[in-house]
Design goal:
The protein is an alpha+beta fold. It contains eight helices and 16 strands. Strand 5 and strand 6 form a beta hairpin. The radius of gyration is 19 Å and the shape is globular.
């Protein structure tokens, strides 16, 4: 239990994905009930039962705030259901990456995340479309897409598993040459992977599009050139401390519309989930179109 200050929030819907991140949510549900039991707020907790159920619940809700309790996939579903509404997105992150939550300054500690929902500020943030599909964090092709596919197929979750899948994928991966159009400017670049970011990271503070903002009306693109295995520790260090843009192996681009063309269709990822996409991938920003709760004092 912890004290809450007065808040304009009156009604909250918590949408819980019971299987995200391979974590039991009963403790989180209990913490929500305990924290709000003595408050004057109206709240409801609903469990998702099938794919896209979170989006449906969010769209139909009359709550002031709709809280995604899960990982990036759950957050993306809930956010899709809130586009074009006055309802605010809240997040209690408990997934494997939690990219949007971390970008918004939201703690993975349940009590702190709850406090942010009640006492944080609301901001109108950007989202984006990839081949007409909304996304909120990152889209990518190349090695990271292959890793996302392997990670999704793994029975284990967590950063350690992700690193292991990345290491295994690296030894069997061939880079490609990409034609990238950013607001009409053409670039032809060899790359191990290309990541388009609305936020600054994949998740777990791995900040690949390290200068990205969700309030600037722009997409950031990280093009990572082929590198040697011996370079991985330095690249990883820059990734984790927010200096990926300083690496001589990384080309950073920025624009409102990004078209990526590769040699053929194949693996891609969108907000951490693996997909098959065609040879051409079109991403476009939708500025200031989603209301979200941000940690108080956190700079976007």
């Amino acid at each position: 239990m912890f004290p809450f200050t007065a808040s304009p929030v009156k009604n909250i819907l918590f949408i819980v994905n019971p299987i995200s991140g391979g974590k039991d949510k009963s403790r989180i549900v209990g913490a929500i009930r305990s924290a709000l039991s003595s408050s004057s707020l109206e709240y409801e907790i609903k469990m998702t039962e099938y794919a896209s159920h979170a989006e449906e619940l969010a769209r139909l809700s009359d709550a002031d705030v709709v809280v995604a309790v899960g990982g990036d996939g759950t957050v993306s579903e809930v956010a899709r259901g809130l586009i074009g509404s006055e309802k605010a997105l809240g997040i209690i992150p408990c997934g494997s990456g939690d990219g949007l939550a971390l970008h918004l300054g939201i703690s993975r500690r349940v009590s702190t995340a709850l406090k942010t929902i009640l006492e944080g500020r609301t901001e109108m943030i950007d989202y984006a479309l990839v081949n007409s599909r909304p996304f909120f964090c990152t889209v990518g092709v190349g090695l990271d897409a292959e890793v996302a596919r392997r990670f999704a197929d793994s029975p284990r979750r967590g950063l350690r598993t992700y690193i292991q899948e990345a290491w295994d994928s690296w030894h069997n991966f061939t880079s490609d040459t990409y034609n990238i159009n950013v607001d009409g400017q053409e670039y032809v670049l060899p790359a191990v992977f290309v990541t388009i970011g609305n936020v600054n990271q994949w998740g777990n503070e791995a900040r690949i599009t390290s200068l990205a903002s969700v309030t600037d009306g722009m997409l950031d693109v990280a093009v990572v050139a082929p590198f040697h295995t011996v370079e991985i520790p330095v690249l990883a260090a820059k990734l984790m401390d927010g200096r990926a843009h300083t690496s001589h192996r990384v080309t950073m681009l920025r624009g409102r519309k990004v078209i990526v063309r590769r040699s053929g269709p194949g693996a891609a990822h969108c907000d951490g989930d693996p997909y098959e996409m065609g040879a051409e991938i079109v991403a476009e920003i939708v500025p200031a179109s989603l209301k979200a709760i941000v940690a108080f004092g956190h700079r976007l």
